[in-house]
Amino acid sequence: MIQFVSEDVFNQIDGVRQIIAGEYSRKFAVIELEGKLGNYGLSWNSDLIEPIVKRSPDQSALWIGVDRQLAAICLRTGRVLLKLNLFTNLVNIEFADSKAAVIAETEVFTFNESATTMVSYWLPEIAIDAVFFEAKLSVKLLDGQEFILDLQTGKSTISNPLVRSPGS
């Protein structure tokens, strides 16, 4: 589905189909969609990371993110549902209960199936991992805390890190 290409090949893709384009890009790729949907281009800055590309559970959308950029494409029409610049680097994209959760280093976004409704949450520390359990998203933070988001109510809680006494 994703094919790494040269800058020249990327530049031949129509501008509206360059769904993720970094300002000082060093890496380039094409996502080839089935049928008449065609190709979409990606470019990004970091040599060390690769794009995250995931289909929604109902197979209706393709979610793509890399560096500080996120996009979603409708797999029925080829329409770009979402293009979003993030404040910090993308960590992961997860799905549960017909919602998409986008985890960046210092924020979490939740979207409905059609990527039209978004709610964002700031994290108190850098996110390092995330998992779903039941209807909740658990984001592990660098300092050992856990940010828990209930996808049904929208309420969030933060677990207390282990309290250590000096010298222990």
Keywords summarizing the entry:
four-stranded mixed sheet; 168 residues; single chain; Thrombin, subunit H; mainly beta; globular; 16 strands; 3% helix
Fold and architecture overview:
The chain has a domain at 87-160: Thrombin, subunit H. It has one helix and 16 strands. Strand 15 (146-150) and strand 16 form a beta hairpin. Strands 1-3-4-2 form a four-stranded mixed sheet, with no helix packed on it. A four-stranded antiparallel sheet has the order 5-6-7-8, with no helix packed on it. It starts with a strand and ends in a 10-residue tail after the last strand. It is mainly β. The protein has one helix at residues 7-11, and strands spanning 2-4, 18-21, 27-32, 39-44, 52-55, 61-66, 69-74, 80-85, 90-96, 99-104, 107-111, 118-122, 127-133, 136-141, 146-150, 156-158.
